[in-house]
Amino acid sequence: MTAKLALTEYPIEMCALRSTRRTAQERLILTLVLLGMVASLVACISYEQATKYQQKPDELIPSNLVRSQLYYVAHATEIILLVSAGLAALIFTNWQSIERGYLLRFVLFLGAALLMTARGYSFSELLSTKLVDWSGPLPFFISVLAFIGARRRNWTLLGPIMVILAVLFSALTLVGMAGLRTFTRQEGVANLGLILDVLYWPASWIALKDHPQDSLARRLRFGPIVVYSGGSLFTQTRLNFVMLFALVVVYAYLQHRRKIPQATAWIFGLVLVLWMVLFTNVFLEDTRAFQKVESVAAAFSSRLTEDTRTGQVLSFSQSVEPYELVLGRGSLATWNWGGVAYRGGTDIGYLTMLFYGGVPLLVTYVATHLKPCLSVLRKNRTNWQLTAAGVVLLWGIRLFSSGYPSAEVNYYPILFCVGACISREPSQQAHSSQLRGKPYRRVSRVIRPTPLEGVLQSASYSAHLEAIKPE
Q: Is the entire prediction scored with pTM above 0.85?
């Protein structure tokens, strides 16, 4: 209810505070998300353990991986819960608070995924477990999770989920590094590869977030990404360091957009790195740990110039005709790589989308997942959207390499951030500023409202002046 107090010709409107209690639909959606994320963690850890113990010395990834029964149960539970949460969020979405035209683009995106499915599956395969294959429709239908991130109030849960993921997988990375024995690349990938793939996205979100000044979170925001850097050295994965460099560039850009001075921070960081290098060379050079790290770094540097993409791309171009990429070969498709029918796509995410779903899938994916991020970066959006846009931009860079959508825990943070980018919910401060006809500018202090007694006294004085004003 709204009450008005008429004081001469300037009425004062006193609005009742809006209830902050969640609706039953919101509680249901967040409960499904929470349970689904727990199931996804169980499936991820189970898969990582199977990879570690079934790897052969000459393999980076086991060719015939046998998953446990726990994995299948957890993965099925994860899919059911998260798809249900996403569909519920889609049904109850207020489309006035979503980017204009997004619904049409999303429907076309789902249509492109269905076209890919129809071209690749037989009727019997649709009724089998192949329906949830990574090259099938599920990695694209899971995008309904974006509508959960589109509601700002949901980030009271999604934010802590990001932090928990970062802390948990940072701890798993440290445990994995401590458990290394031979320090070969094969052992590093088996112990750390999957864990690092998950860690990067919540760690990037924490690093890019604009935390309150002098808060503990602000001081520790680079901790998870530092752990990621250390683990990446032992896996000797060049892509991981490319993504670290991309994160530094995106961080500098977001800080520039926030108008936060950076010179002092960069100088301090450079001095800290130089000091750590000198300290390590002087005091730790003869230790066993330093010698192991030095041998890993030497092995990593020897493969920095290896070309692992050109041969694959040439074989792909010889096996797949350009016209086949217009509509794609469909789900479960194969191509001839070295005389073998290979069903693993390519090491370029965008090209893999073209191979399976053609131009319709690639164009609609970019329109529904990457375009909203660019819109946020181009316009003056709120801070929570800038952070999410930075994460999605990093995902767009990752797709130039071996990235690909998946119904797994490493992809869910990206979808939540896509949702934040499509949101058009005004913040409370921005809405108040618009009512006053002034541009919104974030302040760091709380402005307390004038007590009602003061307003009434001012109104009484104005009425008195009105009464004694001469004719």
A: no
